[in-house]
Amino acid sequence: MIQFSNDRITVFQSALFQTTSTVIQLNEAVLIVDPNWLPVEIEEIKEHVGKVRGDRPCYLLFTHGDFDHIIGYRAFPGAITIGSEGLKHHPKKEHKLRLIRDFDATYYVTRDYPVEFPELDIVITRDGQQVPIGSDTLTFYLAPGHTADGLFTVIDPLGVFVAGDYLSDFELPFIEDSARSYEQTLHKAGRILKEHAVQWLIPGHGQYTADRPEMERRVSVALDHIERLKQAVLADDREALERLQREHGFVSESTIASHEENVRIIRREYAGAESEG
């Protein structure tokens, strides 16, 4: 379904995990971010792109390599692809593809395009790297922490900040890469809000926001959750850890497993231990 739309930006939201896909009409191109999940949802995105594209080229931006964010890659043949160097050299490409195939097999899903890991045309290697697309310029920032290959994108002429799997309105940090990197990335997000005229913050899961205090609140909430996690882990405070686990939206086996992974990574990085035992 469409979560939000104006004359330049359309944010689609999947029924699964409230995952977003965004189509942005640049002056001389159309930018598609993380097309996902279900075939009917990807088809809706394709139909929209077909209506607004005209003779402009398509660019396909991947915020990171989690399988839900790359699942629609080959639905847009001929698109010029953009992603981080970490995505280009992702160490578990086949694992991500296996997750897609397992998902499709489990739910009897068929697709009219091949399932492949993205091959990148434009590779982002550093903070502040800029890519001109016609008269527009995209500015990129590496965003490790959730995953090692995360990427922030700012489109200054439109005031758009595409945040990937950060700064959701309901989803607390899922640390799959590094807690230290996650904190640094959140501080980087705060600097982006100060240094760019951000009007639209679009996370990978949940609701967009055009409210500056809400953008700043999301940064603060994520930083606070990680800080309290660190304190609870270092103090071995099991009651506090259980309370933090219950703070996740849509508490389930999945969020519990993600919380336990957060604890494991924090214990490894800050307490020098590899496991909870």
Key terms for this structure?
8 helices, alpha/beta, 5-stranded mixed beta sheet, 7-stranded mixed beta sheet, 277 residues
Strand order of the largest sheet: 1-2-3-4-5-6-7
Low-confidence stretches: none
Distance between the termini: 44 Å
Major beta sheet, specifics?
7 strands, mixed
Cα-atom radius of gyration = 18 Å
Order of helices and strands: EEEEHEHEHHEEEEEHEHHH
Overall pLDDT confidence: 96
Structural class by sheet pairing and helices: alpha/beta
Shape: globular
- Helical amount among residues, as a percent range? 25-40%
Beta content: 15-25%
Q: What is the count of β-strands?
A: 12
The DSSP helix count reads 8
Architecture overview:
- The protein has eight helices and twelve strands.
- It is α/β, with parallel strands linked by helices.
- Strand 9 (136-142) and strand 10 form a beta hairpin.
- It is globular and about 60 Å long.
Short structural summary:
This protein has 277 residues and is an alpha/beta fold.
List the helices and strands and how they pair.
Blueprint: E1 2-5, E2 9-13, E3 20-25, E4 30-33, H1 39-53, E5 58-61, H2 67-70, E6 80-84, H3 85-88, H4 93-106, E7 122-124, E8 129-133, E9 136-142, E10 151-155, E11 160-164, H5 179-195, E12 200-203, H6 212-235, H7 238-246, H8 253-270
Parallel strand pairs: 4-5, 5-6, 6-7, 11-12
Antiparallel strand pairs: 1-2, 2-3, 3-4, 8-9, 9-10, 10-11
Helix pairs in contact: 5-6, 6-7, 6-8, 7-8
